[in-house]
Amino acid sequence: LLRIVVRVSWQLELPDEGGVLGHPLSATLFPTRSRSPTAELTCRVRCIRMSRNTRASARGNIETLWERTWTTSTAMIQPQVGFALELPLPAYGEPTQMDRTGSGVQWQLNVVVPLQDGSEEPVFDVPVRR
Q1: Angle at CA 78, nearest 5°, toward 10 and 27?
Q2: DSSP H stretches of helix in 9-58
Q3: Which residues pair with 125 in a beta bridge?
Q4: Rounded to whole angstroms, how far apart are CA atoms 12 and 65?
Q5: Is residue 65 classed exposed, middle or buried when 0-12, 13-18 and 19+ CB atoms within 10 A define those classes?
Q6: Mean of the pLDDT values across residues 111-115?
Q7: Which of 12, 34, 105, 126 could bridge 94 with an S-S bond, Cβ 3.0-4.6 Å?
């Protein structure tokens, strides 16, 4: 089974159960149309803790618990093939856990794709468990 996360003109395909701490997570990034990056892609996986007040006007705090950034290159990303990524996950950490207020621990993948007419920066929530 697969889990597909969609962000504007990109989607990320993950194993349905998501990632497991201590094991790399294989994922595939798919554009809605062909993309030709003009430079290396910058990928960032991070684990954040969000603390939100239950009042609608309160913005809340975000604390980064873990983060890893790397670059990778590709000549073209085709919608039919996608671009395979291996997301590093630390051996120890906190699994994804959010409450009704939007507080809790969340894992995210951010990919910066430099293009001729600017860059695209999809951000995906990635479920991670122990």
Answers
A1: 55
A2: none
A3: 108
A4: 23
A5: middle
A6: 95
A7: 105
Measured CA to CA, the distance from residue 23 to residue 38 in angstroms comes to 31
Please say if the pLDDT value at position 7 is more than 60.
no
How crowded is the C-beta side of 65, counted as CA atoms within 13 Å? 18
Whether this model's pTM surpasses 0.90: no
Q: Summarize pLDDT for 47-90 with one digit per residue, the tens.
A: 999 987 656 545 679 999 999 999 999 999 999 999 999 999 99
- When pLDDT is averaged across residues 26-40 and rounded to a whole number, the result is 96
Residue 18 near residue 96, CB atoms below 8 Å: yes
Q: What angle do CA 65, 72, 86 make, to 5 degrees?
A: 55
